[in-house]
UniProtKB/TrEMBL annotation, chains A, B:
The protein's name: 3-isopropylmalate dehydrogenase
Oxidoreductase keyword on record: yes
Gene: leuB
Catalytic activity entry: (2R,3S)-3-isopropylmalate + NAD(+) = 4-methyl-2-oxopentanoate + CO2 + NADH
InterPro entries: IsoCit/isopropylmalate_DH_CS, IsoPropMal-DH-like_dom, Isopropylmalate_DH
Annotated Isopropylmalate dehydrogenase-like domain residues: 5-357
Task of the protein: Catalyzes the oxidation of 3-carboxy-2-hydroxy-4-methylpentanoate (3-isopropylmalate) to 3-carboxy-4-methyl-2-oxopentanoate. The product decarboxylates to 4-methyl-2 oxopentanoate.
Site entry (Important for catalysis), positions: Y144, K194
Catalytic activity, EC: 1.1.1.85
GO biological process: L-leucine biosynthetic process
Positions of Mg(2+) binding: D226, D250, D254
Gene Ontology MF terms in the entry: 3-isopropylmalate dehydrogenase activity; magnesium ion binding; NAD binding
Subunit structure: Homodimer.
Keyword tags: Amino-acid biosynthesis, Branched-chain amino acid biosynthesis, Cytoplasm, Leucine biosynthesis, Magnesium, Manganese, Metal-binding, NAD, Oxidoreductase
Length: 358, 358
């Protein structure tokens, strides 16, 4: 029997209750696929600040180091928003985990599920045009981590600065990730940059072109970030894989997520070169609905499926989970936010959706 | 009689034909408001590359220096896209003009006109919610112009870098522009940043808060750029003035423009501290429809109206042009792209729309 160890970091807000459903699904996978997931829960985020004094306690980091993968819930909330920036859950935990484990490859799929088009903020004909995008975002370099960063000078001439920086190696490895993903999808990579202004974008374009030569079956296009945000609105079905730097990927993946109108369905994977990864829902901690048992657990369940696929190579199990999710949606077992206002009384609870997937 | 001199830079693609209509409208204003616009045309963009060897010939720059304002058409096209980046129309002409004249304050209004909601790529209820946003973008600093920028190293460790940089003075003057604009509108400024990651954004937030104290009648909110691109899709009516740095404003203003679904109606102003400015349509040079007489001249005409308002203080004349544009839209005198596919045979030509406005 194969064994895997998972560091479970449920975090804040709806994190714990949706994580419970992901755990139910993992229990079912253990039985069906003769595999064992040894799971250990660790505190993270605001909860860890309250109980341990910091958003990413060293025992949590150590637990993650010893695991095969991190299953992450969500963190943050108004309670911790007044802390100094460096101590806040998002930065202190999420950015630190990303850079500590060199999780450079961030995959964020966004699709509009048939039958759920009315949730999209886009016009009906656009929402129905077959939207299925995978944003591949570089996650450990660029302007997020580039040095120098600082503040200098006096009075009105005081200035702050950040450095956007990319090496060929950093660009190449994320471009390879995008082309590999496109080969398994519809064979198209759209690389997002601002090469008419930024030198980093020009290098980005050069290296991406080089990588493309190794994937003659994949088509490569380039688009400026300003145009990308327009095209995502106007004609999102034109995109298959969107390859982005850290900052542009932050923007593009959120716009794509919103375009689906169903953030509660969107999972994400952040991986390093060894296949180790952190898997988390794309939506936030939603403190306003935390504890009510109405949050959608699907994004968390699909994050677990990505974990099985990418960090454990359990393709069949991952496929089975994804199929079960689609069947659950098709059966109309839906949490309230997926239903029209006048049908909200038919909403299923968080745990009913989890049970149906199981 | 008041006299103003205008440098007219029609440029490429549809530039010349829409400029002709703007000139007609300015002729009408001269008669009605007893004012003289001394206009001199100068080559710019691809046309200038072809005829003078460079996108911004020195006689054009000199002509702009001697004028009270620049009325700009549009530049660029596939013909010049293979030139080295520094020589291409957009960079060589547009970015140089912006920095030469210190045109730091870029105003880009985007609204969904009543009756034209069906053009918006947004869902009908969102498009009809009363969308009227003014993007105020800093245009002469940030990562577009920040030093150092460069490329260093060897082999796979070769890297490129750009610097995002803002001084308090630079932030303050654009924040003041946003608050002044909000006072004349609905009294709300939403400042867009990435203060959870960037030090420039943190300084941006600090200075914006300081400026807000001088405008107690204006409400100030902050939003992260990733969330901004989501909210523009989900609920654009929540925004009045969006205050952005150069890069974020590039992204936000284009997304807002696309959200209206009618790029041919959108004007923009780029001004310095002396009231000198460059006024141009938000859309591009649209080489595919150039010369056919079907391009929408309204963005160019509204750019002329902004010029009268901001660089010449001719408020009545600017109001009159804007009213005439609304009346033209209401009368259904529309170019083809504003009409549903099955009504395209009712389309008016570029010059018919110009005549109607006159
Ligand atoms: C919380 C924040 C630092 C983070 C980011 O910008 O990467 C978030 O927006 C994300 O996309 O995961
Ligand atoms: C052409 C390009 C350099 C320019 C910019 O990024 O500023 C354009 O996108 C704009 O918004 O005016």
């Amino acid at each position: 029997m194969s064994q895997f160890s998972i560091a479970v970091l449920a975090g804040d807000g709806i994190g714990p209750e949706v994580m419970q459903e992901a755990n139910k699904v993992l229990d079912a996978v253990e039985k069906k696929f003769n595999v064992a997931f040894n799971r250990t829960a660790y505190p993270v985020g605001g909860y860890a600040i309250d109980t341990e004094g910091e958003a990413l306690p060293s025992k949590t980091l150590l637990g993650c180091e010893q695991a095969d993968a991190i299953l992450f819930g969500s963190i943050g909330g108004p309670k911790w928003d007044t802390l100094p920036l460096e101590q806040r859950p998002e930065r202190a935990a999420l950015l630190t985990l990303r850079s500590h484990f060199d999780l450079f490859s961030n995959l964020r799929p966004a699709r509009i599920y048939p039958g759920l088009e009315a949730l999209s903020p886009l016009r009906e004909d656009i929402a129905k045009s077959g939207v299925d995008v995978l944003v591949v975002r570089e996650l450990t370099s660029g302007i997020y981590f580039g040095q120098p960063k600082g503040r200098e000078g006096e009075g009105e001439e005081e200035f702050a600065f950040d450095t956007m920086r990319y090496s060929k190696r950093e660009i190449r490895r994320i471009a390879v990730a995008a082309f590999e993903a496109a080969q398994k999808r519809r064979g198209k990579v759209t690389s997002v940059d601002k090469a008419n202004v930024l030198l980093t974008s020009r290098l980005w374009r050069e290296v991406t072109e080089e990588v493309a030569k190794d994937y003659p079956d994949v088509e490569l296009d380039h688009i400026y970030i300003d145009n990308a945000t327009m095209q995502i609105m106007k004609n999102p079905a034109q995109f298959d894989v969107m390859l982005c730097s850290n900052l542009f990927g932050d923007i593009v993946s959120d716009e794509c997520a919103m375009m689906t109108g169903s953030m509660g369905l969107l999972a994400s994977a952040s991986m390093n070169e060894d296949g180790f990864g952190l898997y988390e829902p794309a939506g936030g901690s939603a403190p306003d609905i935390a504890g009510l048992g109405i949050a959608n657990p699907i994004a968390q369940v699909l994050s677990a499926a990505m974990m099985l696929r990418f960090s454990m190579n359990l393709t069949d199990a991952a496929d089975a989970i994804e199929k079960a999710v689609i069947a659950t949606l098709e059966a109309g077992v839906l949490t309230g936010e997926l239903l029209p206002d006048d049908k909200r009384e038919n909403a299923s609870t968080t745990s009913q959706v989890g049970d149906e997937i199981v």
